Amino acid sequence: MVVIMCKKLSKNFSLMGFSFASSILFAGMDMDSRVSQLESQMKEVRTKTENETYGALTASNAPQLKDGCGFFVGLGAVYQTAILGQTDFGYTSNQNISDLPFHGNFMEAKNSWAWGINAQVGYNMQHDQSYVALTNNYFDMSTTRKVSVSNPSEIDPTRMSDTFDYNAASDAVSDWSLTYDLLGIEVGRDFFFSRYFSVKSSVGLLSSWIWLTNDISYTGAENGTNSQYVEDKSNFWGIGPQVGTVMSFGLMNGFSLFADLKGALMYGRLRVQNYEKDTNTDNNNLNLKAYSHQILPYVTATIGLSYDMTTEGKGNHFKFRAGYNAQYFIGANQMIYPVHINDPSFKRESGALQTSGLILDATWSF
After folding, report:
1. How far apart, in Å, do the first and last CA atoms of the chain sit?
2. What is the rounded CA–CA span in Å between residue 252 and residue 247?
3. How far apart are CA 79 and CA 139, in angstroms?
4. pTM reported for the whole predicted model
5. Residues 141, 206, 335, 352: is their CA dihedral positive or negative?
C-alpha cells in the first residue's frame, strides 16, 4: 500500500516538475521574443545624429504601403487672378488739364481669372524615410480693356512718350498678359510631432520664368484715323534655393487642416522693354531696352482642408487637398515709363506681382 502511494506521489512530482520546467522554458522563449520585439521597436524610434549622439526619431507620416514601390505622382488645378500695379494706359477728361480744378478718371487693365496647372513626381526613400520630388507650376492669363469717349471728352495717354506728336485719343485698348512657369526640385521628410500634428519640411532649388506684356493702342480724336502703339515687356529668368514646410492638424477620419508655406531667393536676369510706333512714322520707331541681374524673392502660402485614404489592400494611398493660395514675386513687375517734359525721357519703376485664388490637387502614392 505504501509502495503504491509512493509511486503515485513520484509520478505526480514528475508531472509537476515537467510542467514547471516547460513553463520556465516557454517563459524564457517568450522573454527572448519580447526583447527582440523591443529592440526592433527601439531601432524605429532611436537615431544616431551627425554629432555622434543619440535621440528620438519622430514617426514618419509617409504612406505605409504593402509591397509599394515608393513612387508618388500629383496633379492639381488652380483658378486664380493676378494683381499688380503699373498697368495704367491713360486717363479720361472733359477739359484741358491746365484748367483748374481738373477732374478725370484713371484707366488700368482689369483683373481676369484663369486656370493654371500644378504637377509633381517623386520618390519616398525607405532608408531614412525622406523623399525627393520634382515640381512644376504653370499659369497663363490675359485680359483686354477697351475705352471709348466722345467729344468733348478725350483720352490722354500715360504710356506714350514725346518721341512722336503727343495726341489725345478717343479710343484706347489695353491687352495685358501674364505667363509664368516654375520648376523646382526638393528633398524633405514628413513626420509627426504628436498624434494629430505633423510637419513636412523641405529644401531644394526653384527656377522661374516670368513673362509680362502690355500692348496698348491709341486711336481717333487728334490722331484722326491714325494710331499710336506701345508695347511694354518685362521678362525674368532666375534660379535659387528654396525652403518649405507643411503643417497638418488632424481632424480624425482622414481629414486634416493644413498650411503650406514656401519661400525662395532666385538670382537671375531681368529684361525690360518699351516699344513705340506711330502709323505715320513707321521708320522712326522707338525701342528702348534695359537689362539687369538681381535677386527676386518669392513667397507662396496655401491654407485649406485635406483628406487621406489608403485602399483596402494597402497597395495605394491618395491625398486630396482644397484650399486658397497666394503668391508674391517681389520686384518681378518692372516697366519703363515715359516722362513728358520738353524732350523724350524715361524712368524705370518696379513692383510686386501677386496672384491669388483657389487650388485643388491630388497625390497618388503606390
Report:
1. 77
2. 16
3. 9
4. 0.80
5. positive
